[in-house]
Amino acid sequence: MEETRLRLAAAALNQTPMDWEGNLQHIRTAIAEAKQNNTHILLLPELCITGYGCEDLFLSPWVAEEAFGKLLEVKEWCDGITVAVGLPIFLNKQVYNTACVIKNREIVGFTAKQFLANDGVHYEPRWFTPWPANEVQEFEMQGQKYKIGDIIYEEQGVKYAFEICEDAWRPNRPAERHMPKGVQLILNPSASHFALSKTDVRHRLVVDASKKYRCAYVYANLLGNESGKMIYDGEVLIAQNGKLIRRNDLLCFKDVDLEIAEVCFSDKPAITEVIEYLPPIDENKELIAALSLALFDYMRKSRSRGFVLSLSGGADSSLCAVAVAEMVRRGVESIGLEAFVEKALLFSGEDKARFRQLPQEEARKAIVGKLLTCAYQGTINSSDDTYTSAKELADSIGATFYNWTIDEEVQGYTSKVEQALGRPLTWQQDDVTLQNIQARVRAPAIWMLANIKYALLMATSNRSEASVGYATMDGDTAGSISPIAGIDKSFIRQFLVWAQLELGYIGLQYVNNLQPSAELRPQEQVQTDEKDLMPYEVLNMIERLAFYDRCSPEQVYDILLERQVGAPEQLKAWITKFYSLWSRNQWKRERYAPAFHLDDYNVDPRSWLRFPILSGGFKEELQRVQGK
Ligand SMILES: Nc1ncnc2c1ncn2[C@@H]1O[C@H](COP(=O)(O)OP(=O)(O)OC[C@H]2O[C@@H]([n+]3cccc(C(=O)O)c3)[C@H](O)[C@@H]2O)[C@@H](O)[C@H]1O
Ligand SMILES: Nc1ncnc2c1ncn2[C@@H]1O[C@H](COP(=O)(O)OP(=O)(O)OP(=O)(O)O)[C@@H](O)[C@H]1O
Ligand SMILES: NC(=O)CC[C@H](N)C(=O)O
Question: Which residues form the signal peptide (predicted)?
Fold first, then answer.
C-alpha cells in the first residue's frame, strides 16, 4: 500500500479589516511557526489579508489591488512550505473571494468561493460573485499569468482542493465532486461567526465530511472580535476518515493560534465506524468566553482606555461588570499577565510595575480597577437592595465605584416643564414621562466619566428589552457599545446564578435574589419588568417563534396554546402587546450602540434582522388572533 505522510497545519488569526500591517504580521508569525515545525501545508483563514469584514470596501477595486501587493510580500516568506492565504480578487469588474496557494514562493493558483454566505449576519452576494463549479480560467495581474477557479492541487502526490467556508455548508458542496477525482485532502479557510453551540455543528460538518469523502479535512477559522459585532472563535480542526485528530481551545486571546498534525495518506484508508461527537456544549462557559474576548478586542482595536458603566445592581449592568472582570481573568489566563497588559495598549510603565509586584488575584483586581469605572446613580425610587448589590459587586471585582443621586437634576427638569405647561406632572397622567426623565438624567454624568477616561460607555440593554423597546432612548440606551443586546433576559438571569456558583463571583449573590425592576416608579407601586411587560420566558418564546422560526402571529398563538403557556385570553393579550411594542420600537433598535452577535440570532437591524421602521404594526393579523 502506497503511503505519504504530510505535516498539515492550520492557524486561527485575530485580524482587523484593513489593518495591513497587523494582519501581515500575524500571517508572517504563523508561517514562521509552521516552518519551524517542518510543515508541508499551512492553511490560514478566509480573507485574512484584508480581513473578512471590510464590507462595502470590497467593492472598491483599489482594495483588492492593495491586497494583491500584500500577497506578493507574503509569497516571499513561503520558502520550503505551501501556504493557503485568503484575499479578494477583482476580475472583469467582479470581486471573487479566493484562497491563494503559494508553494515555495510561487503562486500556484487561486480557488474562488462557489457558495456565498447570505443568511443571518452574512451579506456576501452584495460584494462577491460566486465562482461556477468545474471552471478554471487564466488571468493576468501585473504582467504575470495566474490560474483561478475550481482547481485541484497536489502535494507529494496527494491531491487536495478547497471548500471556502460556506461552500461546506451546502448540500452540493465542492467535496462531492472532488472525491471521485481522487482528492484526499480538503482545506477549508473560514470566517464562521460565533454563535452559542455552533461549534458542535461545525465539528460535525468537518468530521462527517472527512468520513463521507474519505479524506483529511483541515479547517481554520478567524479569531476574536474582528470588526465590531461578529466574534470568531478561532476554531482549528484537523480530521481524517471520520476521526478528529486536532481541535484547539476556542476563543483564546492570542493573535495566532496554530495546530499541526502529521497525517498519513494511503490508497486504502481505514474509515472510522462510529464517529465520536463533542459532549454537550456548556453555553454559559461559551458565552462568557466570547463576550470577554469581544470586549477586549473592541477596547484595544478602538484604542479605548477601558469601560464606564452605570451600575444599578440589577441583572443587566451586573453582567456587564462581570464580563469586564472575566475579560481580565481569562485574558491573563490565556496569554499571561505581561502579554495581557501589553496588548491592552493603555497601561503606563508604573502601572505595569505595580501589577507585577502583586499576587495574581490582587493584580487582576488592580487591572479591573483601572479598566472599569462604575457609578450608582440613585433616586428616591431606588432601593437599598440595588445599592448594596452594585457596591458589593463592584468591590468584589475591584472596579472603581462612585455613588451619587440624581434627584436634583430630575426635579430641575420636571419643574421647568411643569412651569412651562402650567400644571404639575403626576404619576396618574404622566407615568412614562416621569420614568423616562430619571433614566435620561443618568446619561450626562456617566458620559462625562467616559469622556474623561477615554473609555467606552457600556449600554446595558438586553435582547428582550430591545424587542419591546423597554428602555429609554438617550437614557439607559446611551452608550458606545451594547455588549449584551444579543442575549435574552432569561439566559442572563440563569447565567448570573451560574457565574456566582461556578466562576466564584460572590458579589452576584445580591442581584441573584432580586426581581428585575426598572425602579423608576415610586417604591409603593412595586414596579417589576414582568408586571410592565409579561413573563420574560413568554416574551422570549414569542420573539423566537416570530423572528427566528418566522411564524405568523396566529401561528405563534396556536403554538403557545398547544404548549399550554397560558390561558387563551392571556396569550392573546401577551401576543398583542409583544407585536405592538415590537413594531412601534424598530426605530430604537436602529439606534442602539453597536452590539455583539452571540446567540444564534439577534434583533439588530445592522446585523441579523431587518424590519421596517414604519409599518402596519400587524393590525389585521392581531385582529385575527383576538378573534380566535
Ligand atoms: N417610529 C418612531 N420613530 C422615531 N421616534 C419615535 C417613533 N415612535 C415614537 N418615537 C419617539 O419615542 C419617544 C418615546 O421613546 P422613549 O422616550 O424612549 O420612551 P418610551 O418608549 O415611551 O418608554 C420607555 C419604556 O421603557 C421602560 N424603561 C425605561 C427605562 C429603563 C427601563 C428599565 O428596564 O430599567 C425601562 C419604561 O418603563 C417605559 O415603558 C416618543 O416621545 C417619540 O419622540
Ligand atoms: N440606580 C441606578 N444607578 C445606576 N444606574 C442605573 C440605576 N438604575 C438604572 N440604571 C441604569 O439603567 C440600566 C437599565 O436598567 P434595567 O433595570 O433595565 O437593568 P438592570 O437594573 O441592570 O437589570 P434589571 O432589569 O434586572 O433590574 C441599568 O442597567 C443601569 O445601567
Ligand atoms: N464566511 C462564511 O461563508 C460563513 C458562513 C457559514 N455558514 C458559517 O456561518 O460558518
Answer: none
